[in-house]
Amino acid sequence: MKLDIVLIMFVTFSTTLAQHDEREEWYPFRFGNGHVGCSNRLGMSENDFCRKLCNQDGKWRNSKCKEHYCYCGPQRFYRVIKL
């Protein structure tokens, strides 16, 4: 009986976590009045550059580059700074 409950909970949570990225809302990264593109002159890949832009305020966010524009997800975790 306990094993059945644990199994049901495991399947429910793993399914929820697996589908989480699909339901996540993505927001375009904006600077001024424009939408920021992923291309850069720093020699970084588009995904790395987009990640750097989305996380510049010290908060963990998912990021993605879609159609050469940068999109940021909602805040995940605060960064922990080790001294």
Structure description:
- Residues 1-18 form the signal peptide.
- It is found in: Secreted.
- This protein has 83 residues and is α+β, with helices and mostly antiparallel strands.
- It has a domain at 24-76.
- Helix content is 37%, strand content 29%.
- It has helices spanning 2-23, 46-54, and strands spanning 27-28, 30-31, 34-35, 59-66, 69-78.
- The strands form 2 sheets. A 3-stranded antiparallel beta sheet has the order 1-5-4.
- Strand 4 (59-66) and strand 5 form a beta hairpin.
- The protein starts with a helix and ends in a 5-residue tail after the last strand.
- The model has no long low-confidence stretch (mean pLDDT 74).
Strand content: 25-35%
Gyration radius, rounded: 18 Å
Q: Can you summarize the main beta sheet?
A: 3 strands, antiparallel
Mean pLDDT: 74
Spatial order of strands in the largest sheet: 1-5-4
Low-confidence stretches: none
Q: Give the proportion of residues in helices.
A: 25-40%
Query: How many helices does DSSP assign?
Result: 2
- End-to-end Cα distance, whole Å, is 48 Å
Entry keywords:
2 helices, 29% strand, two-stranded antiparallel sheet, 83 residues, alpha+beta, 3-stranded antiparallel beta sheet
Quick recap of the structure?
This protein is α+β, with helices and mostly antiparallel strands and 83 residues long. It contains two helices and five strands, in the order αβββαββ. It has a domain of 53 residues.
Topology:
Layout lengths: L1 H22 L3 E2 L1 E2 L2 E2 L10 H9 L4 E8 L2 E10 L5
Antiparallel strand pairs: 1-5, 2-3, 4-5
